[in-house]
Structures are given as C-alpha cells and as structure tokens.
Amino acid sequence: MRFVSDFHVHSYLSRATSRDCNLVNLDRSARRKGVTVVGTGDFTHPKWFAEIKESLEPAEPGLFRLRPGPGRSQGVPRSCPGEVRFILSVEISNIYKRHEKVRKVHNLILMPDLESAARLNAALARIGNLSADGRPILGLDSRDLFEMTLHASEQAVFIPAHIWTPWFSLLGSKSGFDSLEEAYGDLAPQIFAVETGLSSDPPMNWRLSMLDRLTLVSNSDAHSPAKLGREANVFDTELSYPALREALRTGAHYLGTVEFFPEEGKYHFDGHRKCNARLNPAQTRKLKGRCPECGKPVTVGVMHRVEELADRPEGEGPARRHPFRSLVPLVEVLGEVLDAGPATKGVAAEYEKLLSRFGPELFILESADLAEIEPAGPPLLAESLRRMRAGEVQVAAGYDGEYGTVRLFQEGERDRLLKKAGWFQPPEDSGPAAPTEKKRPAPAKAPARKKPRTSAAPRFGEEPASEVGASVPELNALQQAAVEHGEGPLLIKAGPGTGKTLTLTHRIAHLIGRRGVGPKKILAVTFTNAARDEMAGRLQALLADPARFQGLTIRTFHSLGLMILREEACALGLPPDLIVLDEDEREFLVQKISGRSRGRLVEKISLAKQNLARPEEVEPEFRETFAAYQAALAEAGAVDFDDLLALPVCRLREDAMALKRWRERFQWILVDEYQDINAAQCQLVRLLAPAGANLFVIGDPDQAIYGFRGADPVYFLRFEQDYPGARVIELRRNYRSTPVIQRASAQLLAPGGEVAITAAGEAGDARISVLAARSDRAEAEFVVHTIEKLVGGTGFFSLDSGRVDARSEEHAWSFADFAVLYRQDSLSLPLLEAFARSGIPFQKIGPDPEAESAGRLLAALKLIARPQTGALHPLWGRGRSGEDLLLLQKCIGEREVADLIAELLSGSGVVSDPEVRDRLRPKWLAEAEPFGRDLCGFLEHQALRAAVDSREPRADRVTLMTLHSSKGLEFPAVFLVGCEDGILPHRRSLASAPEREEERRLFYVGMTRARLLLFLSHAARRRWQGKLQDQTPSPFLRAIEQELLAEAKLPRRAGHDQPPDPQLDLF
C-alpha cells in the first residue's frame, strides 16, 4: 500500500502554535492534504496525552484513528475520502552541556503504544516540567534521552530532528556536534533515521558519507494544520507501526520524501536579519563570519554547515539513496498566479475549488493531469505547476530566521504572459516585485572538516578577567600539610572554596596509599548523602585500585548511628530490623499519646534528645508524655530520627566493652563540616575519638547556620580544649569565587572592618548585580530572562520573537550552572510560576508535593517489614479495610522490593489516585532496584534521605532551593532572591543577637555558593506570610561597598526600546 506520512507535528499546547492544532483539525487537514499517517505530536504533555487517549481509538497495530463523532468530516470535500491514522510522536528539546559547550538538540520520538508512551512520560516527568510546553525542554543529554526511550520500549523510533538547524539540532553550527557518534556515543548505531529539516534536501545530505547508512526523512514540523504535509515521507508497505519502523530501519519499501525547496527554509543561507544581510557561504568566509553592515557575527546557515562537514563534492552521493520531489505549497502557487497573498479570500476560494474537483493537495501538486487543470484553474496555474515539477523556480534563500522565497515567474513575467494570452491588462505602475535570485546558487567548495570547538568563558555584562572556579591542579602547601599530617588530632579551619572536600579525600587516599592504613580502620563522617556520594566518587578516582576502596566506611552522622544501633540492637532491646519513624509518624504518635497539639511537643522531644536528656531530666510538665512516647517506640521496635544519635551515645557511654570495640574498629576518623555538629554528635565523636586519637575535622565557623537543629559552632571553637595539643591549620586560598564575590561576602561578615582575602589566580572585576524589583513577580521574571539570555535562548521562539538577541556571543552556560536561593520555601511560588511558563527545566529541592501518597506507600512497606509498627502509621491507618491488610500480608516473603512496590501501586488501594500512582511508580521502582530483596535496607535508605538527595544527577536543570539546603554546594551563577528586611534577616531573629548573627552567616553562605556570577535581588512588594506587604532592602546589603555592586535592570526584549511588563506571560 502506498501512502504518505508526516510524523513531526505539534498540538495547540506547544509554544507558538495555532489554537486550531487539535486532533480533529489535524485529521481534517491530513485528508485535504493527502497524508495518511500523522504524528500526534506532544504526547509528553499530560493534557494532550489525555486528549489522545480520549479522542483516538486503536486501528492497525501501533496506529490510531479518530473516534467517530459529529462534524468530523466537515470541511473535507468528497474528493478527499482518505482514511487518516495517527502515530504517537513527540519532539523533545534537549539543552545540556557536553565537552564544555552547551548543546541544544531536538529529537523526534515515535512510540508503538500508549503504555510505552506513558512509561516514557513518567520517566521524563522526573527530569523536567512536561506541562510547560508540548515540546518539552529538558536538561538531559540526548544520549540519555535515547537510553530512557529504549527502556520505555525497544520498538521506539528515535530520530534526531531537523539535523542542520543552527541552534537546535544534531549538526547545527551554533550548538550541535560534528557527528552522530559524538552526540549519542555507544547508542549511535541504534539510530537508523535522521530528519533533514526544511532548510536542506537529500542531495545536500548525500554529501556526508557518515549519513549513508541512515534513512533520510522529512516532516512538516507543522505548527498549524495548514502547514501539514509541506514535507512528508512516502511508503509502500503495510499500514502498521511495525511495518513503518522496519521500512525506516532498512530503507526497503520506503519511497523517499516530499520536500520544501531548501532555499525556502529560514536557515538555508548565512546572514544577519536585522541588517537584511543575506550571504552565501563563500561571502561569509570572505567577511570572516561578520555582518558587512554592523560587524557582528552572522548566523551560519545550513548550506555553510553542510560544506564544513561534507566529504563529497556537490552532485555525488551514496549508492543507497531514495528519490525526492521538491514542491511549493498550493496556496503559494495560487498566490503567485493570482498576484495575491496566500491567506487571501481569493486564494482560499480557488484552493477549495481545486480540492473539490481534483482531490487532495499533494495529488494536485505531484500528479494531476495539467491538461485537465488548465481549463479548470485560474490562468497560468498549469504552467506554474509544470515549472514547479521541473524545478524551474526563482529563489531567494532564507537566512537567520527569515523564510526564503520561491517564485515561479521572473519579475514582470506573469503580467507579460497574461497580456500575451489576452487574459489581463496590467496597470501602468504595478510596483516592484519581491527581490529574487535568478537561479539556485551553487555552493562554494567545502573546506577541510574541522575538529569540535569549545567556547570561550561566558560573559554577562562585565567579564571576569581571570578564569576562576577551575579545578585545583594540585594541592597547595597548607592542603599538603593537612594531608600529610601524622598521628593525633587535627583541626582545619577552611572557608568557602578552599578545597575542604579535596583536602579530606586526599587525606584518606594518603592514609591508604602512603601510610598503609587498612580501609576498614577508617571512618569518614558527613552531614548529607550528597556529600557522602561526592566523597566516595572522588576517592574511587584517587584510589585507582578498587580493592583499596573496599571496606572504607563513609557515612552520614545518622547513618553511622543507625549502623551502631543495628549491631548493638540486642543489648539495647531493639530488633535488628528496627524501623525509623518519619516526621508524620512521629507527630501522629505524640498527638496520640498526649491528646494535645503536637508541634511544640515534638520540638521539645527532639531538642531533649539532641541534648542527650533522659525522660526524668526534662521539664516536669511534659516528662510523662516523653516517657510514654519512648515506651511506645520500644514496644513497636522503632526509633525516631533523633534516637539515631542519642541511643548510640548512651550505649557507648554505658558499656566500656562496646566502646572499646568501636574504637578499635575505627582508628582513623575524619569529620566534614564540623561547625554544624550538635551536642549528641559532639559526644559521639568524642566517644569514638578520645583525646590524642587520630581525629581529623574540617569546617568553617562562619558557615554555622543550623542553630534551629541544635547545632552550635561552640563545639568547633572549643576543639582545642577537647583535644589538647591538637594541630590547627587554616586554609585561606579560595579557588571558587571571583575576588569581587569573596570581598563582598567577607565585608558582610565584618561590616566596616578590614577584609583580607587570598584569591586564586588573577583579579576579576565582574561586579555583583543588585536588582530592585517592583514586585516578587518582576523579580522572578528577571531571574528567568537572565538565565535564558545566558544560555542563549531555549527555542526558536526565543530567537524569532526577539526575546533573546541571536547576535550575542555564544556562552558555555547550561541550566545546571544556575541556582536560585531563598530564605524560606514559600518565597519560591512566583519563581515556580515563572519557570513553569518559560519551559526552562528546573528542579525544586524541598517539600515533596506528593509526600502524603509517598508516606502511605512507605507505611505499607514498613508494615510488611514489621507488622508490630501498625499503630505508628497514621497515613496507613486512616480508612484502611481488613481486606487491604490481608493483601499486605500476602506480600510478606522473599520478594524483590521493586515487586512489592509494583504490587502495592497496582490495586491495593494504598494510593488511590491513578495519576499519582503513575508518577510514583517509576521513581520508586528505580530507587528500589539496587536493593533486591533487602526491604530493611531500602527502608533505611528512605529514612535517611534529605530533600537535597532528590536531585536527578543526569538532569541539566536550574536548581531552586532554600539557603539552608544549598550548604556545601557551589554553582557558577547564583541568584539570591528576597534580600529584604524581615526575610533575610528573618524577623523572628531580630530580638536575639546570636540568631541575627546566624542570619548574617546564612546570607554569607548564599553569596559564597557562587563561582562566577552573583545576583542579589529585593522587591518593593511581596506576598509574604499570607498577605501582600511593602518591603525594604535587607540591612545586610549596606555592609557591602558600592564599588562591588552594579545595578541590574529589568529585562528588555532584544531589539526593542521599551521594557516588557513583568506581569505579562513570558511568551
């Protein structure tokens, strides 16, 4: 069966598309055009995917048809009776950094069934915001996207889209690669088709031998139903997904493509649209890539890029090639014949007449008998079609986002022909025709193929004079001294960017590699899982032999405490498979015991445990509640989070033999971020490492910001008293931030005093940008626009609309380079709205919006592990039936954790909302897979997780997080929003000098997360604590000298003089 397909289309939910792009209109347009198989487009968008499932029904294998309904054939002439099939498709925009260059690649995906599409959607929903745009923007490597697609279905078709487009494609000149292998690595051999795009045709692609094995496809990339089929693919095979896939894979039964004239594409030639400068590749090279009018860099087009990579001369090609036909849309042919615009009523009327008489548009353009068309159509239509079919066209190539023009008559020729035939007497002054080029220009000779390029350091406003933030090439003298320290205690005072983790990991590597210390004798303690993972990764790289790493213990404080509890469980009267309560379970239990408001009591119990108080030692008014709470935990064989430190301390204090065992086990102890320890953590360290022990601690009292958790920098400051004779080393050389950021942050800590910094490298002069915004929404708009500008635009619309100036120099910025920090989670709401509108991929670190459903699932797993804990699980206990509990009992046994989760999410009623189940399933199954049958291990992993651990490591996304969560991290560019009095410093700190100083340190931590660029912003009005309030700038800002600051402006759209209203939608 011969049929035409157009896989690459978009719905009305894609940015800059027609509202008419719905399934009914796409079906109607396909029948009028003569296209049989149409891509649904946009199946990753939740709303569009729901419409697909509602409006389509299965047809042939892997294909769908529109469900019957009234009005489905309205507007379709009887001469266009063709049946239309839909195939599941989506285009995804991948923006990420690879080899120090930002890559922007679009990929087209076809899926064989709804289930596979749903699996891919669920996986991608963890990476980015699928609701912002029908063509989602993901900070995900294209190779990783392909891998995830294959995991969703091995029968998926993965097609790099419009591979030559300068900004957003595989081989694009601005942000692409030089080969398929460079982009997709080990998975490249599994790609069997590429999309040539509107600005290239098959002969241009035949010049590259690296594309010989691939099937070249063409699609419309339609943003409105009228554009459907302007480029398409022709098959002669069975009408089914498997047959289509096989034809694309092998090239058999594939009859080639219907094409644009490539010159009509808007990136065919080089040029500068603002100056109306259109250049062929030879002219561009002669001008050294600069616009002849303004001198700015031109946009290098498709023809130029083809010549850069081509290894064949024009006219040569592979043995395996498919035919193609270049056409001009019928409305454009009629427009030229009638000397009218293609969207005018006259053209539309003639178009409808032709369709009613001859059938679908593609048949008219390609095959209709010209002898029959001549009397039926307007004068010169038959001659126009003849010329188009013969390629006798006059072209003015598109460039820099400006569509080219293809004309069928030379200037004045139409009027002369009409006059000669007696059809038309032209007016005396018909006006000049659009400028044309008389023939399709021949490309210049291709130069030698170039190696991949890397970009220069990025700039924003004022460029730093020196490269900062680079990795330290070797240890400096003080770091080396710390690493080579002998025996006994060592305290290292290390400010931001001085190489704390570097020094600590090299110390461990030195102990193992140079000192011959057995890895099992070493204990390294961190505060977060992220810090633990980073430390482990660095050590594996330093210790080339994996055997040297084996047995090394790297734990967070709470993970260490849990390890001690499990091994000492019998002596403590606890089961080895003890359960750790989460916050909801803890609050539920306190309320159940006391019958009173739980919040304040939970805080009191937590503080008592952090200070190692026993029930009989607490305040009399809540002593009974505390004792009852502890008894309930003991009865259930459970502990809470604070017990993970308090109980091990009690055990080691009371049993000298146990203490001896643990001291002998860990004879070398290293502690990171020592300034953040509380009383229980300090006691645990002192028990394991008594005076004179081999204890290595590192930290910075200026970054002590966790007073609300019981942390106190006094333990850091009195280290020399706890460990008499301890050696002290202070690391001063900052390798992270520019000197300007270092100086400003130091002034914040010592306002008005002398500031001494020791910066690595030469001095940089990029000042800190300070924005005074009218409102919190304007502030959010500034953040989004600035990121988009630095990355260089996120889509065609950004460039074509002027939101981002295409003339700006290329920057090596990726989304993962940016962090947006704020004092309190509620400040993120305007930012979330702005990022969701923009489509920029982001991840927010903080409270899980699906925490209740996840809590139900976790409670069910805890009940499977220990049924005795049932009374402690409020989320499970509400409304559960006996049948549900019986179903849970059936799950108990030797089964994979992932299998248990899959069963609980399938029909047990644990999570009732099917959409929430679909979102939880891939995330939880992926987390459970490494644990096999170890349910207790999985529960321990979940109990010890922090919010910051939810970051997806493969995703290239902007990070939104609180200042407290940002501790220990660094980013090339940081936005610190909400720098206002009452927010930072927080108003509750105003009555306490120590708390106010902690707020100052918190501001300092935020500033010192930045390596290259720092933006501080405050708003005149902000919705804060439930109401709209007038705000004033933070008094902390006054501590920074004005010479280090630069006023930031609200964004102006490139090429426009007036700033946009920041309340307007970004697009």
Can I get a quick summary?
The protein is of the alpha/beta class and 1067 residues long.
Secondary structure elements and pairings:
Layout: E1 2-6, H1 23-33, E2 37-39, H2 46-55, E3 56-58, E4 64-66, E5 85-98, E6 101-111, H3 114-125, E7 137-138, H4 142-152, E8 157-160, H5 180-184, E9 193-195, H6 202-206, E10 215-217, E11 232-236, H7 241-250, E12 254-259, E13 270-272, E14 277-279, H8 281-286, H9 302-309, E15 324-326, H10 330-338, H11 345-358, H12 361-366, H13 370-376, H14 381-390, E16 394-396, E17 405-407, H15 413-421, H16 477-483, E18 490-494, H17 500-513, E19 522-526, H18 529-542, H19 546-549, E20 553-556, H20 557-567, H21 569-572, E21 579-580, H22 583-594, H23 598-610, H24 620-636, E22 638-639, H25 643-654, H26 656-665, E23 668-671, H27 679-688, E24 694-699, H28 714-717, H29 719-722, E25 727-731, E26 733-734, H30 739-749, E27 758-759, E28 768-775, H31 776-791, H32 796-800, E29 818-822, H33 829-838, E30 842-844, H34 851-865, H35 874-877, H36 882-891, H37 897-907, H38 914-928, H39 935-943, E31 958-962, H40 963-966, E32 971-976, H41 993-1007, E33 1010-1024, E34 1027-1030, E35 1045-1047
Parallel strand pairs: 1-2, 2-5, 5-7, 9-10, 12-15, 18-24, 18-25, 19-20, 19-23, 21-22, 23-24, 26-27, 28-33, 28-35, 29-31, 29-32, 30-31, 32-33
Antiparallel strand pairs: 1-11, 3-4, 5-6, 6-8, 11-12, 13-14, 16-17, 33-34
Helix pairs in contact: 3-4, 3-38, 10-11, 13-14, 16-17, 17-18, 20-25, 22-23, 22-24, 25-26, 25-27, 30-41, 31-33, 34-39, 37-38
